[in-house]
Give the backbone structure.
Amino acid sequence: MTHTIVILGASGDLTSRKLMPALYRLYRKRRLPPDTLIVGFSRTAHSDVSWREELGKSTASFLGEHFDPASWTEFARSVYYHPGDISAPEDILRLGRRVDELEHDATAVRLYYLATAPRFYEPAVLHLAAAGMTCEDCAHRRVVIEKPFGTDLASAHKLNEIVHRAFAERQIYRIDHYLGKETVSNLLILRFANTIFEPVWNRNYVEHVQITAAEEVAVGHRAGFYESAGVLRDMFQNHLMQLLTLTAMEAPARLDADAVRDEKVKVLRAIRPMRPEEVATRTIRGQYRTYGNEPGVGGASSTATFAAVRLDVDNWRWQGVPFYLRSGKAMSCRTTQIVIQFRQPPHMIFEDGPSNREDANRLVLQIQPAEGIQLQFQAKVPDAGMKTRLVDLDFAFRRQFAGELPDAYQRLLLDAMQGDASLFARSDEVEASWAVIDPIQSGWDSGAGPELGLYEHGDWGPPASVRWMESQGRQWFDLCPVLH
């Protein structure tokens, strides 16, 4: 059976940097269905040959030693290009006729990938529907939509309504590349394939949870986008909320898309809404000092490049356990990690034993780049009486398993082609996530939020972030990864 991937907006950076390298790597691993076709669509003037040549150069540049010219030549025979304007219905009709000619198969499974700016999502899906290209009378039709999916709850709801005019919910794959990372999937394995963690994964044993997504790089060429988005829209509504739901969710009855996503939505709906008067005390915002000098910013700006937020999940498992979410640009290092801080023992019998909550057991899940798990526990220091020290049990993916971890887009593209939506967001999940973030963003925009604190490039955010945690009797775990 033929499988066709139609990339709308194919001349953009996403296609050359992520999609084509991922598809080529899947081809080399023999994971792609044998009759896979890839058709690019964009306004840029290309022929099949010129687009193949351009993609060959960019893919070789991104993959380095993993690129093989001979296998690329074989792979590129199934790569085609059709020029056209996504806003022009007649161009979409011509695209449909071209794809029909290439497939020679009325039962071909077709995946449309919107690698375009968000403003083109609406015309793209509506023109595809008007051209009869979303109908599933003969074969499956699916669409992949990149983030950002809306800029707030109202726009996300409107976009959902528009997309649903063209596609049923089961046909829609809202992609967040964080969910394609091996260590994110491993979080489900850790919790639900082992008996030693789940019994203590609750309010009786967990004191608090920290989820950090730190980026070492500054905003750079993304300043134009970042000025309209800021850190909450860029990182919290999607990436961090996804990690929170996977950390806090109940075990699904079975491992299928709807069962997993049902449990994630329950977590989002259990998060305590933040009242306007709480925004100033339950959040921190910051900006690295040189942000105003970035091209596209234009001097004074109140856009936050750092944020820390406390969220509470009001259900039986997590009542009273704060979840601290933190993300920022131009920070000390690049790392995404989840820290489960356990409670202290109820009674400490060792005089030289741990005396504060930070010395209690801790589970650190390294999502990237040093993918792995560290369990930190107290051990006796040799030849020092009964003095104790926090030590690690350390598991690293790169040390345990041979080969390179696959790029997230490899996993997600293959899942979308096979019709597995487990790692893609559902419409109610997207809207429930925005419902959590909207009150915070609104508070900041109205001036009711905390003062915008400045921090130096290479810091872990503004000093106010440290004081904020200390005021709650806690501290941040600033753990730069060690690559094994």
In short: The chain is about 35% helix and 20% strand. Residues 4 and 37 are 5 Å apart (CA to CA).
